[in-house]
Specification:
Length: 148
């Protein structure tokens, strides 16, 4: 097995572990009046906004009619809002409304607490290595920029 195949298998394993970690970190969140799918949309908006309906649909694997319906329900609950593109009035973007920002801040606060518990006994040098590894993954696999 060559090094790229080994990396691929490691990535598949880590993707599964990330899904499990995400589940563990969100299972205790009070959903109140939203569905798990609506929460996932809010979470996605909180890290990538403003964004179009089609981008939400494509990235989350939800049909356009279902995406539109879920966004409408979230907007009715004042958790997100549509904004028009000033250069193309046919194009609309979705972003979190203030109540959605507050809800996601609370959710991320809960998740942060659980995350910090997992790192409680990690030495500083290990934290630095983890950070560096995440930067490399972000730049080469996920195509994101470092937030340092």
């Amino acid at each position: 097995m060559d090094s790229k195949d080994k990396l691929f298998l490691q990535m598949v394993s880590h993707i599964a572990a990330i899904h499990q970690l995400h589940y563990d970190m969100t299972k205790g969140l009070p959903m109140e009046d939203i569905t798990p799918q609506q929460y996932e949309i809010l979470e996605f908006l909180s890290v990538k906004q403003p964004i179009t309906l089609s981008e939400i649909s494509e990235c989350m694997g939800i049909s356009m009619p279902n995406t539109s319906r879920e966004i409408r329900k979230l907007a009715e609950k004042d958790l997100c809002e549509k904004i028009e593109d000033p250069e193309d009035r046919r194009k609309q973007y979705i972003r979190l409304a203030p109540a959605g920002e507050e809800r996601m801040a609370n959710a991320f606060g809960h998740m942060r607490q659980l995350f910090l518990q997992q790192l409680e006994h990690a030495p500083e040098e290990e934290l630095a290595r983890i950070s560096e590894a995440l930067d490399v993954l972000g730049a080469t696999i996920f195509r994101t920029e470092s937030k340092r």
